Amino acid sequence: MSQHLISPSILTADFLHLEREIGMVNQSEADLLHLDIMDGHFVPNLTFGFTVIRQIKSISEKPLDVHLMITNPDRYLEAYRDAGADWLTVHYETCPHLHRTIQQIGELGMKPAVSLNPHTEVSLLEPILKELNMVLVMTVNPGFGGQQFIEASYAKIRKLRKMIDETGAGTLIQVDGGVTEANIGDLLSAGVDVFVVGNTIFAADKPLQVISNLKKA
Questions:
Q1: The domain spanning residue 186 has which CATH number?
Q2: Residues with catalytic function
């Protein structure tokens, strides 16, 4: 791709002033708004549910990039669509009938994506690559923001990039976890298209400038 997409994650935003934080993203050069949905079962953390997503949707000027870190996501696909999800990511590790899940996401009018935990091999997605808008490679263990980037992710990303190019799938590669202004250039070179960035943006004194820097990487 000639350009890359930035998807700020509100996981580390100031939830006491969430409207202000989303307003900042609206004003920025960001392309998406990333929502991490956690159930305290698949990952050891809880975030928020449908009511908050609907409220975010009502003020966000960016498409909602919703990442489900939950067990049994199939039960709730339509509910997430109704709450406002534009892109919907499920985890490979939680979907025993992944192909059917991906088809249902698309039929509901959302862009289907699959996430892989750090230990999950990218080759497992080869049979369905052409049906995915995006593959999310977790570059930290899912559950908490502000973690350190796992360096072994580079090899995994390059392998996935090669798979996508060889199959002509056109699938985007997204990364989530430990993305900074210092490593975004190396990640771009490895083949990443979409960057989920949380703490680097929301802990910054000038978050708008950080987003601009990330877009110009």
A1: 3.20.20.70
A2: 36, 176
Of the candidates 132, 111, 139, the one whose C-alpha atom is nearest the C-alpha of residue 9 is 139
Number of domains, the chain: 1
Q: Which two three-digit tokens encode residue 174?
A: 């997204």
Q: Which of 116, 100, 96 is nearest to 108 (CA)?
A: 100
Q: Which of 41-45, 56-60, 193-197 has the weakest average pLDDT?
A: 41-45
Per DSSP, the three-state class of 8 is strand
What is the rounded CA–CA span in Å between residue 50 and residue 52? 6
Q: What residues are paired with 112 via a beta bridge?
A: 88
Half-sphere exposure of 3 (CA within 13 A, CB side): 7
Q: Two tokens at 113?
A: 């994506």
**What is the spatial distance between Cα 174 and Cα 113, in angstroms, rounded to a whole number?**
9
> For 112-129, what is each residue's pLDDT tens digit?
999 999 999 999 999 999
Backbone Cα Rg of the chain: 16
